[in-house]
Amino acid sequence: MHTITLNISEELADQFRKKAEEKYGKKKGYLAKAVSEAFSVWLNEKDTVIDQALSVIEKGMKVSNLRYKTRSELHERTH
User: Fold this and answer.
1) pTM of the prediction?
2) pLDDT, tens digit (0-9, with 9 covering 90-100), for 1-50
3) Phi/psi of residue 77, nearest 5 degrees
4) CB 66 within 8 A of CB 48
5) CB 18 within 8 A of CB 31
6) Cα separation of the two ends of the chain
7) Relative orientation angle of helices 10-24 and 30-59, to the nearest 10 degrees
8) What is the pLDDT of residue 27?
9) DSSP character for 39?
10) 24: closest CA among 36, 8, 12, 10?
């Protein structure tokens, strides 16, 4: 177990405590459970977005109406 100290707005803290209490009841450790769950959900969502982006990069994207057929043609143009 690790201890993390955070500074968040009073309004956000109050909202979070209220939601955590609704879900877990005001029992010992309810806030730690809620924070752990929130961290896990956030990390999983970020992983999903990253996985989706990597999938698009690996597959490539079809782009129509390109003026250049190759990357080198794009970089050889004069301004």
Assistant:
1) 0.57
2) 888 898 999 999 999 999 999 999 999 999 999 999 999 988 877 778 78
3) -65, 150
4) no
5) no
6) 58
7) 100
8) 93
9) H
10) 36
